[in-house]
Amino acid sequence: MESLKSTEPSNLRLPLSKVLQKINRRMNAGAPYSEILDFVFEAFKVIIPFDRMTVALLSEDESQMQAHWVQSSATIRNLKRDFAAPVSESLRQILRTGKPRIIGNLVDYLKNHPDSESTRLVIKDGLRSSLTYPLYADSKPTGVVIFSSFRAEAYNHSHAAVFSELAQELGIVIEHGKLRQFFAANTAKDRLTAMIVHDLRSPASVIHGYLSLFYDEPWYKQLPQKSKDTFSVLQRNVDAILGLLTDLAEANQLNSGQMPITPQLVNLKNFLNQAQMEAEVLAHRKGIGLEMVMAPNLPVLAYFDPARIKQVLGNLLTNAVKFSQAGSEITLTVSATPGQIEFAVSDQGPGIPCEEMPNLFQPFGKTSVKPTANEPSTGLGLTIAKNLVERHGGEIGVESKVHEGSRFHFWLPLDPPLIRQQLGTTN
Length: 427
Prior knowledge:
By secondary structure, the protein is of the alpha+beta class. The chain is built from 12 helices and 13 strands.
């Protein structure tokens, strides 16, 4: 193979530029990054002296470097893909300074660094010199690309400028490939979750239906109380399963962007009266009072998705009922300020410890506070509420004191043109 020692780097600018353009075209076309790297290996080995090209990436804790892609003009017998080793000080120096490293004689290097297992393995594969470049994404080190040759002293500093532009491009290619893999994995996960929820909901609904029918049967009414209590336990647990499946399905739709937001003009008073009526059923069943306070300056019309905001209010009111004792009061307050409308649900429950507040609004985030009647809680309701409020352009929050209760509140923008812009609608 011809060495670049006899070739001016400037003579390589044109072929280098053409290859970089082809790399970009493949990347924009959605080609897998392993396919792009295979192209790089074949395109560059005729103009740059290397016999093996290795892409090694840092682990999440940056303690190890692992070979994620290896291509060679000869059979790879020793240092193969997935080989991992602790990050050496010399590699840390490369990542820290951004400067490439040239090893002219790997055999001599191993004598001075006898603990380098990777060097030992590449020597067994016949390699004798290497040029290592750092890879970055968003200015953060992600790994290295190593060009190796069967000849000793194959590289000098004139090669560094030529390789640097390629190394920058490879950093973009690899990060692009990692993102594509991440989104592909997330899409597969969302589909699997949707399938599992669908398959579990059907048998759970059948069990729920049969249990509901039993309560009207003459034989059920003749059962001893202990047996009836057993049915009640079964009913409560099936209800919990169906509630969890519903929340999982909604959270999955939100994460995948499949839950549409359909804003429209809403008669605010009618909307709030309906929400209050539905919440009163739950509250009165538990002996809890529910009061709604509407500010006199509320507008007649508001602009939001009534089904989704009703879901948000339902989650907050249901939680307030779950964590309140019989005889206590829950208050739904609705007020207006310039440009926005605020909803607040206050209870007289046990309150939430300060150190546990960060758990709220997180998927499956729960606190040590337990529902007062052992009601089921999935830990997804507040996550869903937060997502829906933020998609409307608003914010949600909470204040709470132990033994004094909690106040969950959220606001929505009132200006229809602004909301339409935030929601990406033109209605």
